[in-house]
Structure formats: C-alpha cells, structure tokens
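User: What would this chain look like folded?
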Amino acid sequence: MLILFLHGWQSTPGGVKPTYLKDHGHSVLNPKLPDDDFEEAARIAQAEFDRHRPDVVVGSSRGGAIAMNVTVGDTPTTVSRIGPRDSTPIRRGPGKGH
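Assistant: Here's the prediction, encoded as structure tokens.
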C-alpha cells in the first residue's frame, strides 16, 4: 500500500510513525513540510498526492490539518490528533472537506 504521510509541526520526514509504517510493509511518501507556511505545506502535499496517487493519506497532528486541505477525490484520509489526552483518529470520506 502506498501511503502519503504528512508529519506534524516541528517534525521531520523519517520519524517514528512513517518508519513504523515502512517497517510493516508499506511504501511511504513523507515530504518535508515547512512549519512556518501552512499554504506552502498544503501545496507540497497536494503536489505529492497528484504526482503519486497514494492509496491513503495519513496526517499526524498539524499534518492532519494539511491533509484536510488536500483534494483527494475518493482516496481515504486518516487524521490523527496527537495530544496528551486524545489520540483518537478522525477519518473522512471522499473529496476535500468531507
């Protein structure tokens, strides 16, 4: 499975979460997203999605907010809110903003 993994604020590609996915047999796209420019991060994520058409998009923390701003059509998107008390994933259906 090809996964587009969007990291959180002040995180970097190749962290624990995308490495875990790779170690469990998935191909992972994990682009570097700028911390100080949300719109540029969303453009990078959209370009990666458009170029590779992954099977699923996974956003961790701020990467989840970016994922919610990527037009993905019918591709499943999972957003993980990572916090001290709540790490319940949010899943959205097809299309941007739904």
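Residues 63 and 81 are 9 Å apart (CA to CA). If you want, I can go into more detail on any region.
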